[in-house]
Design a protein that fits this description.
Length: 191
């Protein structure tokens, strides 16, 4: 039933996008909890946090939960979701998306535009370590809030010109961040 509602919801969303091609990043839901991991209160609080950080940083911070990847890899599903629904700010579609799949017990962080610059390898390690224990314990609200706040901190630091851990790369920051799209896969083993 939830899967059908999700499909109907995004079909309507897509219809609106076709009718109104100028669709602001802020009009898309930055929390899509198809797996129903959060209470209504937790959803409201997290969505407010995601919206506030995204608007202030001009970088979409998105959390998506699904029951199943339906045969796709977690990376492809996350990337396709971000691209298909048009997330991101500006021409480079700046953003960071966290996807959680319950059936596969896997998660993935997809980045685009400035999100690539902000989430260096060291930054991704820092961020994933910050929310992983809450995720493993099933405290999804805490895990997703930690993810959002961590993204805020990493984007803010990257805007100073010195992304977190950039010194570990021999060339400094990522080259050609506008064209380069990096993805990091991290398997999560739930209890």
């Amino acid at each position: 039933m939830k899967k059908k509602l999700f499909t109907v919801y995004f079909a309507l969303l897509l219809s609106v996008m076709i009718i109104c091609p100028v669709f602001a990043a802020g009009d898309l839901p930055r929390l899509v909890d198809v797996a129903d991991l959060l209470s209504d209160y937790e959803e409201t609080a997290l969505l407010e946090e995601l919206d506030e950080i995204s608007e202030r940083q001009q970088t979409d911070i998105v959390v998506v939960t699904v029951d199943s990847l339906e045969g796709e890899s977690v990376m492809d599903y996350a990337d396709d979701f971000y691209d298909y629904y048009g997330y991101g700010f500006g021409d480079e579609r700046d953003g960071i998306l966290l996807l959680i799949s319950m059936e596969e017990r896997d998660w993935y962080i997809s980045t685009s535009g400035f999100g690539i610059t902000a989430l260096t390898e060291a930054g991704l390690t820092y961020l994933s370590q910050a929310f992983q224990s809450d995720l493993q314990e099933g405290d999804y609200a805490a895990a997703f809030t930690t993810f959002a706040v961590g993204c805020n901190d990493l984007v803010a630091q990257a805007r100073t010109g010195e992304p977190y851990g950039a010194e570990v790369f021999s060339r400094g920051r990522f080259p050609s961040a506008q064209v380069l799209r990096l993805h990091w896969v991290w398997a999560l083993l739930f209890h």
